[in-house]
Write a structure and sequence with these properties.
Layout lengths: L15 H42 L21 E2 L4 E4 L1 H14 L2 E5 L1 H26 L20 H8 L4 H15 L7 H9 L4 E5 L6 E4 L6 H12 L7 H14 L4 E3 L1 H14 L4 E4 L4 E3 L7 H44 L1 H5 L1 H23 L12 H9 L2 H18 L4 H17 L9 H22 L4 H34 L4 H7 L5 H9 L1 H21 L3 H9 L29 H21 L4 H4 L1 H4 L7 H10 L21 H16 L7 H17 L10 H18 L23 H8 L1
Amino acid sequence: MPLLPRLSEPITVMTKDTVNAVNTYLHKEQRRKKRIAWLIRLAIFFISFLLTTLIVIYEEAPDLGIKKFVIGEPAARTFFAPFAVSYENTEATERLRTEAVEQVPYVLTLDESKNRLLRERVDVFLEEILKNRALKETPPAEEAPPAELPALSLPLSEEVNDDLMDGLDLEELRKNLEEILNETVFSGIISSEAKKALKDQGVFRVSITASGKEDLPLFVETLSTIESVKANLQESLKQLSTKDRRIRAAVFEIVNAILIENLFANEAETDLRKKKAHDLIVPVMEEIKKNELVVQRGMLVNADEYKRLEIIHKKLATKQALAKFAAIGILLFLTYLFGFFYMLLFEQKALLSLRTVFLMHLTLLITTLLCKAALMTSIGSPFLMPAALAPILVGLLINPRLGILCATVMAVIASSITGLHADVLITTLLSSTAGVFAGIKVRKRVHFLKVGLSIGAAYFCILFAFRIFQEYSPQDALMVSFQGLANGLLIVMPLAFLLLPFLETVFDLVTDITLLEYSDLNHPLLKKMIVEAPGTYHHSLVVSTLSESACEAIGANALLARVGCYFHDIGKIARAEYFTENQPFQAPSRHENLTPTMSCLVILNHVKDGIELGRRNKLKRPILDFIPEHQGTGVIYYFYKKALDQARPGEKIHVEDFRYPGPRPQSRETAVSLLADSTEAASRSLKDPNPETITQLVRKIINDKFIDGQLDECNLTLRDLHKIQESFVKNLMAIYHTRVSYPKQSQESDAPDIFEAGQFSKFRADS
């Protein structure tokens, strides 16, 4: 209920266009949410169908005849290729690729920056010589000592230094230096450690790469190191064009002074070239023609023939798997599709609940997985598959009709797992149906024995009939039939017993077993109610009795109605004194000092308080639904009428401010509790409760609730309402039955005293 605005708060008046725009937006948003919900339902159906199909067609190790051929042994039979096969000879391809990769030389990169650095050092050194020559030729000042020449950047011998200062041809020196550097240093020098590492890796050939130049292929042994250059430098000098001994000596010492490493391993480029060489090799393809002789009986099977056999059988396995997937997929898709349309036409409420749809498909997937696992064990038998598990769980958790639907679906699935055997189809369908029927009245744990026995007995009888029809001996038929009996009692029943509480907790559902546990009047909430709100406790008991009888009359869940009515008014415990049934006799009402609006808020809060209290005490969702839905969106008429009477002239009193927040009853059980609650409360005001007045009262209350639209969202029929009325009248007449008037005994009367000689108990019994 919207709260009344405070006087300090401004009241915003919405125009008609604004209201229409808001309504349009809300309508679009509602349609969008509905589309998303339907897409989720369809996704659940499709994913469940796909997973089920994959589980059904899965085979751990399909045997297609390859085990009959062993390398080195005579072939058990002659084998011709059933179809043409083109395949890659992976061994030949890999051999060619390995050879191509091995042909790729290891890449070394020549660092041009190192060469530029050498040239710069040579240029700087020659400039230093020119400067020193200039200083030497400059005459010193009078009486000044001769200037000391700067030291050169390269450590050379005194003899070479003197030669350089004595007019040695520097251009000739530069030319010869360039010549010897090009031959030794600029072509590449690698460190001794790197060269040894390449040899250790088994590298024999390398390729030297430099920017702007073609790769230079070399053997590792021919790579130059600083040590080898120094050792061979004298021999290299013999190739110089100059014959001047001094220039040769200067070149020798300068080169020894400036030698550096400029050749480095390039792992990234090497790997890239190897990958390119690997990828350039085209796969070697071979072909087996149709009807070609692959192996002849009695001949020894060699590795090449076995490989060809393996390729043919793999291709055959793939074809058979695709064919099986298509066949099983079509069959299961039609089964799921028909199941969807069944729910759309006859179980719309269940289909609209995503919780219910997900629960159904989850139980189907779990059962399918268990059936497949049972069949794949070493002693697996198709009649030991727990195919009846999903129908039993769905029948207990949702309703038996959907349990029968799951029995039909599981019959097709179980038959598909075993290769579409008719006996598996029929036994699964009938035994699952028998289990669903036996589970309708499961209200105790021991009743699971009845369910397991029903499944086992149905399995036993159907299997025995099949085996007798197939001309088995009675003894063999009995041995096979006992598998079905063991299936029901030793497999399905324990699994259902263990999974049921788990699914109840996860999906927040209740079974009759759980409802019976909640129906214990020693429940903490009920014990608290009888102490703090005794009138409400008595009211709840009467309403539960009325609801239970009415639900039995219309075929609804009477146990759920009784338990739900036990807890429907637990919200009154917090403020019990504000409710009439808990007020002491002739005591003033707590509402006398409250305005009608405040009294209405107090009454409305018992719904919110009840939901919070129920959640704290971990009541299940189906029981919590009774707390708001037993009031629906009805009007608190007493305080609404009081507000009208107390209204000032011109003041508008809106009936919507005095309505419960709802929702309206969504199930037959909560709808019956709404009618029972109103009927019980109104019957207290009857001054002369007799069949006629009670009938009129019940009829009026049901008509008022019907006209007010409180029953629009549940699936009660007019026939159901008539049966509910008859049940209410019958029970209220039993509650308010009349007694005979006891005549007073006059003093002159000679009649015997009925309270003497133990007559009192007899009189009470007769009356």
